[in-house]
Q: What sequence folds into this?
């Protein structure tokens, strides 16, 4: 994992279909790792990850999107209790371009060590 995202982690897998994932055990200084594998290329439709607190207080968070095979950082953000990340498979118009049928990891952590459970939606 990239610097700052090492340490204790809650690891979950999210299928590449529109769905909602609830964190389980994410709080404090634990990193939430969401593993997913992209689907087939789409020339027109972007994908969106959107997340926020779930039955916990809103706190500033940091996140990073990395390619699983080599740890390359493709996107990152911080200072917001919510996460919105637009991506596309092949078409660079919609944010970071992801490769089809490739493994990635979206890592989330609480900036100040506070905070608890989150949800993450994938909208295709």
A:
């Amino acid at each position: 994992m990239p610097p700052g995202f090492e340490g204790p982690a809650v690891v979950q897998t999210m299928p590449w279909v529109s769905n909602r994932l609830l964190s389980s055990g994410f709080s404090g200084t634990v990193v939430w790792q969401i593993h997913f594998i992209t689907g087939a290329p789409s020339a027109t439709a972007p994908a969106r990850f959107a997340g926020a607190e779930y039955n916990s207080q809103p706190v500033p968070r940091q996140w990073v999107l990395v390619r699983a095979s080599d740890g390359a950082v493709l996107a990152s953000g911080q200072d917001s209790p919510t996460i919105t990340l637009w991506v596309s498979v092949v078409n660079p118009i919609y944010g970071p371009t992801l490769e089809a049928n490739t493994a990635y990891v979206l890592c989330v952590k609480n900036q100040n060590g506070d905070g608890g459970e989150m949800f993450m939606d994938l909208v295709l």
